[in-house]
Design brief:
Blueprint lengths: L1 H27 L11 E7 L10 E4 L2 E12 L4 E8 L11 E7 L4 E7 L12 E2 L1 E3 L4 H20 L1
Parallel strand pairs: 1-7, 2-6, 5-8
Antiparallel strand pairs: 1-4, 2-3, 3-4, 5-6
C-alpha cells in the first residue's frame, strides 16, 4: 500500500518536471505567444541581419509590439528583407521611425528594435521602415580593431 503511494507521488513529480521542461522550451523558442491574426505587416531592409530569426520579437521602448514573420534576400538590391507582423493595437508608429537589429541576453538573442520618429503621418499596413541599422557583427568589429591597431603600429615605426 505504501509502495503504491510512493509510486504515484514519483509519477506526479516526474509529470510535473516534464511539464516544466516543456514550458521552458516553449518560452525559449518564442512559441508560447502567437501574434494576432488581425494585425498588420511592415517590412524593413537591412544590409546584414546577423543571427536574427523568424519569430524574434519586435520591440519599441522595451515593449514587444510584434514578431519577425520572415526573412528573405532581395537579389536586386542585395539586402535582407525582414517582414514584421505587428500587433493591431500598435498602429501609430511614425512614418520616419527607424529599425535596428539589437542583441539581448547572455545567449545573444537578436531582435528588431524600433525607434519612433517625429512625423505626424504613421506607417500603414504594408508600409516599409525606411531607416534601418544592421546587426553589429562581432567578427567585423574585431577585424577593424586589429587592422587599425596594426596600421597605428606601422605609422609609429616610420
Amino acid at each position: 500500500m505504501e509502495s503504491k503511494t510512493v509510486q504515484v507521488a514519483v509519477g506526479v513529480f516526474i509529470a510535473a518536471g516534464i511539464a516544466a521542461l516543456f514550458m521552458l522550451a516553449m518560452k525559449v523558442s518564442n512559441l508560447s505567444t502567437f501574434t494576432a491574426q488581425d494585425g498588420y505587416e511592415l517590412t524593413a531592409r537591412f544590409d546584414n541581419v546577423g543571427g536574427l530569426k523568424v519569430r524574434a520579437p519586435v520591440t519599441m521602448a522595451g515593449v514587444r509590439i510584434g514578431r519577425v514573420a520572415s526573412i528573405t534576400f532581395d537579389q536586386k538590391t542585395y539586402e535582407a528583407v525582414v517582414r514584421l507582423d505587428m500587433e493591431p493595437q500598435y498602429n501609430k508608429i511614425p512614418d520616419d521611425s527607424s529599425a535596428s537589429i539589437l542583441t539581448s541576453g547572455l545567449l545573444g538573442e537578436q531582435y528588431v528594435g524600433l525607434q519612433p520618429g517625429a512625423e505626424d503621418k504613421y506607417l500603414q499596413a504594408g508600409g516599409e521602415v525606411k531607416y534601418t541599422q544592421s546587426a553589429l557583427v562581432l567578427e567585423r568589429l574585431v577585424g577593424q580593431f586589429l587592422f587599425n591597431k596594426a596600421e597605428g603600429d606601422g605609422a609609429k615605426k616610420k
